[in-house]
């Protein structure tokens, strides 16, 4: 552990450097998630019913404004429905390839995100060999395109961290052996790859990401650790509140030290805040902090755009309809161009008392379409409006959606 005074000194020197040249872009990766082909829980599911693909105009809208990284969610079961080592569904693969090609033809990075939580058909993947074969097969297809990036897997949780380490190492070995040697790989950690919990939230084996993930080996030396960072009370992103105007930077500090101590770099693959004063201040403060520590923080992708992400979802920046677009797209662009935002006026820096935040007193009104209706710790009502169903999007977040499961109990 670095002494706190030494840490502050280093931080001060770095922030001086950055503010001396505020117009220099500091982030290598900045962009957005396209949540579309990973959508829904029906597996493998049907195009147009359970999932869709990103709108090409949405991708061009972002790349046209200088966003240079698009994280493309997919489901592994839709790409290889018959098993991890089985052949591709050529139709799904064709749509993935055209989406990737569109992104990279705009000069942007296409980050392929198997949005699977370390699971296949909802069961934990235990075979690192089969997982490696899946990645060999996928990486072989994209090895000539240097703008493709490989996301090992979205948000492992509920397993041994030593297993997550082994899954990451198997994917890295497989991707490099397939001949994809020039591309970036983003390993993810256990327990939702939380940036806040990286060094202190253990997996089932009592091991934290910080204890082991620094030992991953990449012969190409192009690992960018991917972490997720939501600013509400439990860090889940399940509601539009932010704990305080400085929660984003406060919760990154320990991990920043870990990255520097271990000589690693990272980026925030998911984060968001609602359209309210505390969150706007918190997002700006978080981006300021990352800008001031851009030796280890290489950038971010906002969660999320996507045609079905719901125009009214609090963090949607789908062009032309997402309610967070007008507020957050200009902020992300400015941050990417090196702007250090002014501190917020004193009133909005006041720390919200966590004990009185909305998460401890869930709403009593019925959920609306696209609203939250369940998940770990949820005491609110679960009755979705007619025609929609309450479907788990992950362990923490059940949502009222129109694509109701077709299987009967
Ligand atoms: C791929 O996209 C086309 C529309 O562009 C659609 O007709 C087709 O069903 C899609 N297939 C899959 C598996 O995504
Ligand atoms: C992997 O192991 C876990 C824990 O033992 C088990 O719950 C899971 O079903 C296994 N996965 C498969 C695909 O067999
Ligand atoms: C997880 O780790 C514990 C402790 O090291 C071990 O006993 C257990 O067998 C592991 N579980 C699996 C599914 O590998
Ligand atoms: C992106 O979409 C917004 C909102 O619809 C629009 O105002 C803007 O002109 C678009 N920009 C580009 C580059 O397409």
TrEMBL record:
What keywords were assigned to this record? Glycosidase, Hydrolase, Signal
One GO-annotated biological process of the protein: glucan catabolic process
Is Nucleus tagged as a keyword? no
A Pfam family annotated for this chain is Cellulase
Q: Which residues form the signal peptide?
A: 1-20
- Per its UniProt record, what InterPro entries does this chain match? CBD (IPR000254), CBD_sf (IPR035971), GH (IPR017853), Glyco_hydro_5 (IPR001547)
Q: Show the GO MF annotations.
A: cellulase activity; cellulose binding
Q: Name the family the entry cites.
A: Belongs to the glycosyl hydrolase 5 (cellulase A) family.
Can you name this protein?
cellulase
Origin species: Zasmidium cellare ATCC 36951
